[in-house]
Amino acid sequence: MKTGRSGDFGGPLYRKLREYSDSDYYGFHMPGHKRILGDFENPYRFDITEIDGFDDLHHPETDGVLTKAQERAAELYGAEETHFLVGGSTAGILSAISGCTCRGGRILMARNCHRSVYHAAELRDLTAEYLYPQQISSLGINGAICPEDVDKAMKADGRIQAVIITSPTYDGICSDVRAIAESCHRYGVPLIVDQAHGAHFPFSGYFPEDALSAGADVVIHSVHKTLPALTQTALLHMQGKLADRERIRRFLSIYQSSSPSYLLMASIDACVDLLDRRGKELFGEHIRLLSAFREGCRDLKSLYLAGDDLAGNNIAEEAEERPETGRGKKTAAAWDFDRSKLLISTRKAGITGSRLSELLLERYHLQMEMSAPDYVVGIASIADTEEGFKRLSRALHDLDREFQESTEEKGQKGRAGNPDPDCRTAEAAGLPRLPFGMTAARAAEQEKERCALSSAAGRTAAGYVYLYPPGIPLIVPGEVVTEEAAARMEGWLEEGFTVHGLEDGNQLQVIKL
User: Fold this and answer.
1) What is the Cα 95 distance to its own chain's centre?
2) 76 near 270, Cβ under 8 Å?
3) 377 closest CA partner among 410, 355, 353
4) What is the mean pLDDT of residues 461-477?
5) Angle 500-506-507 from CA coordinates, rounded to 5°
6) CATH number of 43-271
């Protein structure tokens, strides 16, 4: 019997992973180590439980090894208190919301939050009030949350117990966290920021301001998304007196495994150590490569690499940390943009984002992070190589010429004209505004049935519906489905996108009449 790297042992998943690891596929997606940066010996040698001398994540000793590791992470990020998460940012979000609210209370949340925020609201039977993001219609993405909207909602409802926003979004758009935090604090309410995709922000002025520096009370970072750490690793930071830290700690012990993986915790610790020792060097090189890549994509004609026109806020720039600016007029719909997100618009190319993603994968063995109807997103990190960036640049330029020739030959225009961003309201585009029928927790307890999308208008949803990634629910249990929402889902299905939450293709779960 053959053994070794020939792939005849370990089971089908193991063999497939081994085969993929030996291939030439290059990933512009998470995890941030890109299967390149970081070194771990035989993982089985490090896989232990809570034995003597190794501390306990849920009951850490004052001078224990995990306590010291978490304190080092807190120092690196400038937090007053930091906790390792082995259940991803999801565990941190569930714990933060549960710790900052009472059962049956009220939460003010951005409508474009990750589904874990909605799950927390459901688990705590919270009434959610929504903050709708601006829209960047030319790119087909959600923009920032307006601080004025936060202040208006806080002023109108004194029962709000916590505020949560996502910054950056999956697409890289950042809100003015500093102004939003100031507004929350005026009313004595803690601000929770899901900054899962911004764990790299503190390490260079090239990136937007991190939420901790901006004054958020609780911040959740997924270190595995943009930094060299194993999948499922994250950090929860706390500061100030508004967030109930004791309650958040209690919920961390509830939502996380009672047998946390020492492999994952060691991965976080190794990542923190790497950033502490070599962060300046690694990010300096990363920004050089990323800036060169962005500069090289300026001549694309059918495809469009967004970002430089969205980046930049009112904070003074430090020239040595921002080697190039390359910024155009900033849209009011984005406070800032994470330029490590490679958002490639396909509207002028006359194709969908899913088709571009397929071409990059099939022809060039480049795996992107996600595709949407009008764009593709890639994630760049300090693990990316110069050859990796050049490979993506060559592929985009090859395809760009192909799309340009095709549209000129057919005398066609792109799917949209001007790539310059502009704003419009959520009523005209973006996330649907659906009326509440009941809370998600109450809807979960009702008797359910299936209903075809074509006849779903007016029915109360009993399940979540979303595109994944990014995992933002388009329909939430307890919301009343509108004709617009049903039509939008049908349109996604026609374009070939997988709409999670539907059954048998186009059946929506609703509350039984």
Assistant:
1) 18
2) no
3) 353
4) 85
5) 90
6) 3.40.640.10
How big is the CA angle at 197 (ends 345 and 335), to the nearest 5 degrees? 65
- What end-to-end distance do the CA atoms of the chain give, in Å? 61
Check whether 197 has a pLDDT greater than 70. yes
**CB 31 within 8 Å of CB 367:** no
Give the integer Cα–Cα distance in Å for 11 and 8: 8
Peptide bond before residue 31 is cis, with ω within 30 degrees of 0: yes
In the chain, what's the furthest Cα-to-Cα distance?
73
Burial class for 109, CB neighbours closer than 10 Å (0-12, 13-18, 19+)? buried
CATH code given to domain 440-511: 3.90.100.10
Task: For residue 77, report the phi and psi dihedrals to the nearest 5 degrees.
Answer: -90, -5
Q: Where are the domains of the chain?
A: 43-271, 288-424, 440-511
Whole-angstrom distance, CA of residue 159 vs CA of residue 162: 9
User: What are the residues facing 141 on neighbouring strands?
Assistant: 136
Q: Do residues 145 and 332 touch, judged by C-beta distance below 8 A? A: no
**417 pLDDT above the threshold of 60:** no
In sequence order, what are the residues at sequence separation of 6 or more whose Cβ sits closer than 8 angstroms to the Cβ of residue 313? 174, 176, 208, 209, 335, 336
Judge: domain 288-424, CATH 3.40.470.10: no
pLDDT at 1 over 70: no
The pLDDT value given to residue 315: 32
* pLDDT tens digits for range 56-70: 999 999 999 999 999
8 pLDDT tier (thresholds 50, 70, 90): low
In terms of Cα–Cα distance, which of 377, 374, 385, 382 is closest to 419?
374
